[in-house]
Structure formats: structure tokens, C-alpha cells
Amino acid sequence: MTLLARLLGKTTVAPASVARDRLRVIVEQTGSASPDYLPELRRDILDAIARYISIPSEDVNVTVTRDGNEAVLELNVALPE
Amino acid sequence: MAKIVVVTSGKGGVGKTTTSAALSAGLATRGYKTCVIDFDVGLRNLDLIMGCERRVIYDFINVIHGEANLNQALIKDKRIDNLYILPASQTRDKDALTTEGVSKVLNLLQDKFEFDYIICDSPAGIEKGAYLAMHFADTAIVVTNPEVSSVRDSDRILGMLSSRTQRACESLEPIKEFLLLTRYSPERVEKGEMLSLDDVKDILQIPLLGVIPESRAVLKASNMGVPVILDQESDAGQAYTDAIARFLGEDTPMRFVDNKKKGLLKRLFSTRAKEKVTT
Ligand SMILES: Nc1ncnc2c1ncn2[C@@H]1O[C@H](COP(=O)(O)OP(=O)(O)O)[C@@H](O)[C@H]1O
Ligand SMILES: [Mg+2]
User: Fold this and answer.
1) What part of B 219-238 touches A (C-beta under 8 Å)?
2) d(Cα B253, Cα B272) in Å, to the nearest integer?
3) What count of other Cβ atoms lies within 10 Å of the Cβ of residue B125?
4) For residue A1, what pLDDT band results from cuts at 50, 70 and 90?
5) Residues of B in contact with A36 (CB under 8 A)
6) How far is the CA of B104 from the centre of ligand 1 (A)?
């Protein structure tokens, strides 16, 4: 979005930037950089969470990020109000 | 009982997934309880085009192998009532699909879930995945581009439909076949650069369901994860809506088949392709 459009409060987002954001999430969760047990791990985590609270699956993010030779498993859960 | 519809082509990249998304969204909008299944195991795509990739937890293969039930794997669309997506597995390959497994899932969707339509988005090729996507179908939509290799592959697929589907093997009433010509560009046809609608119809000899123009709206829709049929301002969205009306037996004139830049006189005298199809 151009600065001008942003200042004018236009909220339409460019399709390409939506695509970029969607792909980033996919690559973090299931891309070649992430171990192949990640989908199953995410499933188990979802099952565990579902025993306590009911939240939509897209509010649970399980990602692995690599930084040099260190890998970090990150669990991000957006709790309902 | 649910009608099973396969969207197939032989060739890859011709618009099967775009069409499966549009068809399922369009039928659900018209009030039919619809399920769309991604048969492209290993290279799933439909979830992206439908915009539900972050909601995939279990998939078609998990259900076939009894690792999840259909209730867990079916994703209910957030925008359209009556619309459900069964995603493919990203980590397995097509050998994970079995005839018995596919049959079991389709039966459940028909009997227990009482869908009106089950849309099978076929992978490219003529191997196991494509074979299983078509095997149980009542109706086939053959997606074809106005291009030699695509037309030849469609012809090959028509041969498979008439010999290797359950309806053919058990000598039941034959599968209904329809042509959907996509990525059509009337300007290029007029210039003689592209096969025309009549050329393709002549060669394939099956009833025409519709013509979807080459459209920028398709890329936009896939970026956003919204089936293009929901963009009713777009030519492709309108063309898909027309094709679904014909699929449901309504008589709708073909649009987007003539070059808009043609002179008025020429346009007045040109005959319109009109055809009624029933499913
Ligand atoms: N009518 C159309 N106009 C422009 N691009 C299209 C059209 N239909 C499909 N496409 C594009 O063609 C490519 C292949 O489409 P897709 O539906 O994934 O084909 P398939 O499932 O047959 O491999 C995609 O990039 C898609 O955006
Ligand atoms: Mg596809």
C-alpha cells in the first residue's frame, strides 16, 4: 500500500501482500525448513488444548525457526477473550 | 443421493483446481450441500485456493487410514454455508489412496453426511490419483485450454472416462461428460493465434458447459484465497456462474466468447453459441 493510501485510511490490502503473508505462515509450519513431524506435533498440541479450551485451529501456531545452527520451536496460542 | 462430479483434464495447470473451487462455492451458494475433495495427494493446492490452509489438521489420507474421522477432517467454509473442504495430504504420495478407501469415504459423504454434490478435484496425469478421482463419478467436467497439448490430453481422458470408471466397468448408465473451455482469449482467437471454441468442440464432441476467459481476476482470487466465483464483478466469476447455471440445467447464453473490440455491425451479425445442457 502506498503511504498516501495509508494516510487516507484506505484499508484495501494488495493481493500480493496477502499472498506473501499466507505463504510465510505455510513455510514456517510445513515448509522444507521445518521437521516433518511438525504437522503431527501441531495436531497433538491442538488435541491437548481442546481438552481445556475451545479455540479455532488457526489460532494455534506451531513453528520452527532456524537461526544459524540453533532451532527454536515456538508455540503461539491466541486465547479467546 | 449425492452426485459425484470429477473435474479432470489430463494436463496440469489448465484450471482444474480453480474450477473445483468455483464450482463447489457456486453450488453451495445456490443452496446445495457441497463437499470438494482434493485428490492431488502430495501437492495439495485446493486449501490455498479456498483460503483455508491454516485450518487443515487432518486430511483425506488420515480418514482413509482411520487416523481421523470425517468430522475431524472436513473443513467448513467460513464464508459460504453448505460448503465443506476435504484437503489432501501434503506429506504422503498418491499410493496412499486406495480404491476401497476412496469408496468408503465417498459412501460416508453420501449416506451419513447427506451431501448433494461431491466435487473431486483431480490431479494431472493419468495415473492412480487421476484414476481414483474419476472412478466413482456420475459426471465429469473436462477442463481444457485452447491449446493442442491440452486438447489431446482431454481426448485421452475421455477415453479413460468411457472405459475405466465404475459406470463403464459395471455397464451402468454412462458417465455424463461436459467440456469447460478455460483461459480463453477471444482477441487471440480472432487474430488466429489460438484455437477457437468451435475448433475444440469439433474435436472433442462433448456438450459445452461454458467458456471461462483468461482473466486477471483468477490470480487476484488465488492470492487472496477466495474462489473467483465470489468476485462477481469479474468476467471469470460471471462466466463460472453461467457455467453452473447450465450445469443445473438452465439455459444461459454464452458470454465472453466474442471479441469485445469487434465492430458493432460485425457483432450484430455474429451468431451466438447457445446450448442447453442437462446433468
Ligand atoms: N481463467 C483463467 N485466467 C487466468 N489464469 C487462470 C485461469 N484459470 C486458471 N488460471 C491460472 O492457471 C494456473 C493453473 O490453474 P489451476 O486451477 O491450479 O490448474 P490445475 O488444477 O489444472 O493444475 C494458476 O496459476 C491459475 O491462477
Ligand atoms: Mg490442481
Assistant:
1) 219-220, 222-225
2) 8
3) 17
4) very low
5) 91
6) 30
Mean pLDDT (chain B, rounded): 93
Residue B156, all three cell numbers: 485421452
- CB distance B44 to ligand 1 below 6 Å: no
Beta-bridge partner residues of B228: none
Q: What is the CA radius of gyration of chain A?
A: 16
Rounded to whole angstroms, the Cα distance separating B110 from B117 reads 9
Q: What is the ipTM of this complex?
A: 0.77
Ligand nearest to the CA of residue B49, numbered in listed order: 1
- Helix (H), strand (E) at residue B37: strand B34-38
Closest listed ligand to the CA of B129: 2
Read off the C-alpha cell for B70: 470425517
Residue B109 has pLDDT above 50, yes or no: yes
Q: Please give the grid coordinates belonging to residue A49.
A: 488444548
Residues with CB in 5 Å of ion ligand 2: B 16-17
The model's pLDDT over B214-267, given as tens digits with 9 standing for 90+, comes to 999 999 999 999 999 999 999 999 999 999 999 999 999 999 999 876 555 555
Residue for grid cell 473436462: B142
From the CB of B17, is ligand 1 less than 6 Å away? Answer: yes
Q: Which phi and psi (to 5°) does residue A20 adopt?
A: -60, -45
B91 to chain A: closest CA residue: A36
Task: Name which of B86, B189, B212, B232 is nearest B141 in CA terms.
Answer: B212
Q: Is the dihedral of CA B65, B68, B71, B76 positive or negative?
A: negative
